Amino acid sequence: MLTAWVIGAAGYAGGELVRLLLSHPETSIAGLMEARFIGQPFYEIYPHLRDLVLLPLSEYDPDKLTNADIIFAALPHGKSLEVVRDFVANDLRVVDLSADFRFSDRSAYEKWYGTHTASHLLKQAIYGLPELNRDKISRAKLVANPGCYPTGALLALIPPLKASVVELTSIIVNAVSGISGAGRSVNESLMFCEVNEGVRPYAICSHRHMPEIEMIASSVAGRDVQVSFVPHIAPMNRGILSTVYFDLTQEMEEDEVRQIYLDHYRDEPFIRVLPPGVHPSTKNVLGTNYCDLSITGDRGRRAVVVTAIDNLGKGAAGQAVQNMNLMFDLREDLGLDLPPVFP
Amino acid sequence: MLTAWVIGAAGYAGGELVRLLLSHPETSIAGLMEARFIGQPFYEIYPHLRDLVLLPLSEYDPDKLTNADIIFAALPHGKSLEVVRDFVANDLRVVDLSADFRFSDRSAYEKWYGTHTASHLLKQAIYGLPELNRDKISRAKLVANPGCYPTGALLALIPPLKASVVELTSIIVNAVSGISGAGRSVNESLMFCEVNEGVRPYAICSHRHMPEIEMIASSVAGRDVQVSFVPHIAPMNRGILSTVYFDLTQEMEEDEVRQIYLDHYRDEPFIRVLPPGVHPSTKNVLGTNYCDLSITGDRGRRAVVVTAIDNLGKGAAGQAVQNMNLMFDLREDLGLDLPPVFP
Amino acid sequence: MLTAWVIGAAGYAGGELVRLLLSHPETSIAGLMEARFIGQPFYEIYPHLRDLVLLPLSEYDPDKLTNADIIFAALPHGKSLEVVRDFVANDLRVVDLSADFRFSDRSAYEKWYGTHTASHLLKQAIYGLPELNRDKISRAKLVANPGCYPTGALLALIPPLKASVVELTSIIVNAVSGISGAGRSVNESLMFCEVNEGVRPYAICSHRHMPEIEMIASSVAGRDVQVSFVPHIAPMNRGILSTVYFDLTQEMEEDEVRQIYLDHYRDEPFIRVLPPGVHPSTKNVLGTNYCDLSITGDRGRRAVVVTAIDNLGKGAAGQAVQNMNLMFDLREDLGLDLPPVFP
Amino acid sequence: MLTAWVIGAAGYAGGELVRLLLSHPETSIAGLMEARFIGQPFYEIYPHLRDLVLLPLSEYDPDKLTNADIIFAALPHGKSLEVVRDFVANDLRVVDLSADFRFSDRSAYEKWYGTHTASHLLKQAIYGLPELNRDKISRAKLVANPGCYPTGALLALIPPLKASVVELTSIIVNAVSGISGAGRSVNESLMFCEVNEGVRPYAICSHRHMPEIEMIASSVAGRDVQVSFVPHIAPMNRGILSTVYFDLTQEMEEDEVRQIYLDHYRDEPFIRVLPPGVHPSTKNVLGTNYCDLSITGDRGRRAVVVTAIDNLGKGAAGQAVQNMNLMFDLREDLGLDLPPVFP
Q: Under DSSP, is residue A41 helix (H, G, I), strand (E, B) or coil?
């Protein structure tokens, strides 16, 4: 039984981690740390977990963590690197859900996020996308859990990039997210009436997940890749639908493109490549670690690949648990085999 | 390992049964019968279950059921009694989710639903509300799973009725349901645009669940009870919130009333009696078998008791699995301990 | 052409006032005052009004108001009484959307809202429900616009109270509101993900609109009336559905009860009494000043009367404009004849 | 006063036409024809219009139309051409909301829609996008109202195509629509629970609006233009957000691209070009004929242009009324100056 801690448990990703760890047969939640609500039972801020979680939120205290098997850090960027630095110094194993250790290059991080005071760890941190880095993750001490948008985008981009069929200047990622992607903290523009009954884009080609997508895509392609990334929000709680467009380097039938994905993802437990004419919906992955994916060709010269994930599942807490499973040599889908809730 | 069959698997209650049975450690789904979609894989009509359920929908065929440990009948009323009759004749154990065996009295059934052609079974069928009939259910062959609205209403009414503190002519049940309560079949008035952004009542004091509530409430009270029942729909997928009003036979403090519930539900695994000032939300029970419940007094002479359930959970499939657990002497919450999904 | 000012224009009621006044053929908006966003164009905080409203938000300044024909005060209670006092002193005409002048009795106000420092005006303020006080409103200087919940409840209660058919101890008002009822200011518990996909009650029998309903109902009945009032929120932007229950003093057919309403509201421009079997939906009044109303009997001894209003329309800004029309002897529905938006 | 008829009044576009014509100062609705609900008052199928529209739905009868000033045909494609043929033969003026007269080329129509039996009219029909064809519309007998998606896409594409700054092989239109775009007829996949809490694409690069976009874009560009068009649905009633991507033929600053739009749309009453950093939301145009539009550059080589319209407004009924205004030399925004409803 692994003892797990969640640092920053009050946010939505923290709450989802608690939900998943509760159902996980090989972990027990040792404690929940937070900067707010200290001393309150967790179920008071997450009343759906009444009777299920009796632990209170406690103040951050590294001394309590010395025997932790696994620490999930679900803190804002900039905060995370300060505590993760200590964990690594104490040889603890960490899955960090912030952006702080996703960039291999300090300057790239600092351009988008601010000063990095633990950049010596960037080299050893592993980008926690199991479909890309499974082996490295299984040996890692520090896993940087990918961003929600990058997860949905990269799972669409990696197979054709590896197969060298993507015109590298042509990539467009149009993503639509549910509102929980913005976290649980108060934000006037995300009040119910402000977002209900509307769809809108934001941070067009200037979202911090754009350089993250470009960095990983470039490393997969072995060459510089630019991606035009436009996030949108839609009035739903969870889910990211990424509609990814790229020109093909040569004329290809839709089936040929699909075969690249079928081959690439043949053994993946969480990628469901859909048959011709069937497309993903965020509803179908709600509450799970699945990524549903469809491929459509446009007149032989362009492909449209659509992925659907749960932003709190495969886009955050689910993937974090998947990474933990890999780090501890557990079955990769342990605790993640909950059927989706529908409708 | 119990072999379970679901008859009428394509509806929402059927889909939820499949979801719950998939996670249940002591059952395996032997087959899924339906009148429609015969031969299609179940995941084609419930794409969220792709890779998780490989079974097709098959035509109704009683010969296949002879070795079934448990049959869940999720058919429309009138259809159900025809097949259940056969099951009982063959000594099979059944949880029937229709209204066909909820009424002990044939004429009451026929007044609201139409001719009953298996009324000889009404006596032996047990009304499957475990909080009321736990022992009888555990010995039953045929369990009539309660209606969704009656479940939410009766869990609010039973304790004070038993304690004889309810003015019997004063009971009002105001219920608000999510849209899945109407089932998966096509209904023009339940198209997205027709219900989104609106709340409305229907079948005011004329819904078929009203006599069901009155029958059970009367039997608990030992006297005739009339209930004014008004269902409403609200734009959400799941959940029933029942706001139940009744006058007290004597002046009582809110705490005294609450104590009746605390005492009555002390050992119930699925009833969460909330502390003063905390009220239920359907969100907090989504995807579960919980019933959250709060008690508020109004100036000593009236009580307002609010319950929240998931209409597909405690209001249908969850309660059906709870009943199965009792019938087979399994831990009552086996397979039902999934934490709710939030948000 | 009347020159109109809106004080507290940034809230939802303020925004709706601006929308309605824009379409009103006999008013022109002279200015918009606010405590926040001063100097910003109004369309920056309400981008749907870009090109339609060019006015900025300006600081509160009574000197600018000396020539105002009509002032709409859409301020929080406690703030409103301070400015309204000045308006009245300067002989200006005001529709106040706060609770500050709704209570004729100072102690009733102070029990629920805090100290009242302009209580000398309580006598002259007219409770602005045109269906009750049309004549007084037409002569008033200071109109206290009713609360949103009281409007929906009282329109159901006034006719049978006047007809003396209501058992006065039996009244229950179960109301479900859209989220805009809580205003535009930031509130963690009203973030999209916190309310979407859930229905819940709040302030059970302790909401400040309960004494307001009781005060007016009592004055109509000529005797003390107690009302159990339970507000709920549902995931929609606008609308209040009030389901009102009361016992009849004598056995009556549904048609007899309905006739009371048909007679009482025969000449009302904004009350639509629905035929038997047709019930209100908040969708059908969205964006309007209508109140839809249905009557259903329960076995001769109880009536269930349902009203639907738009909380920002008849529940706030629409009724405020209706009151203004009366005060200035304009056609009562001037500027309020916009057809509802559906779906 | 123009006498207007609506043929096919029961659908959502028909309902919106009725709403708009009701508020239009220069038209009166002479009659409403339908294939269903004949003899029923219109307000029974659109209860929000109770008291506002007293007309019944009547059977299609061309004899009644001989004196019509303007006919709005809101019929399914294939049906429309049959009746419109008669109208034109009788020298009546028509705005046709179907696809039947949008294509100048019969074979293009027949490839996507089926046999065209009135193709002799294709030449004289004018594509009713006022921002493109204002003069022709003002002289037209038969106006083919554009599709909802083409309206949103073309308003983003026309200015840069005219300015010859678009790399013609690079255009991508990613559109997200509310559910009313699918019309009011029953469709299992658009039941509330099937679409709520989910976003999904459909008809990827195979939607019938794709050739319509390509045809008009090609005619504007003077060369063949291919567009990859991917429609999606989101859980909201109304609105289309189109996110349009194209490569620039030469490196350009964002401001230069925006200036093309500002110049092109300078005098347009319904196009609101937003300032830098402000983006459209479908909420801000709800219930109106506006198209909000923003321009963003991506590193000098690509532009992202976003438009928001109400699919029933500028995407259907609003634009139809705008076309009528042009055809009868009325002020172009007459009856269309209703402020949007928010929230």
A: strand
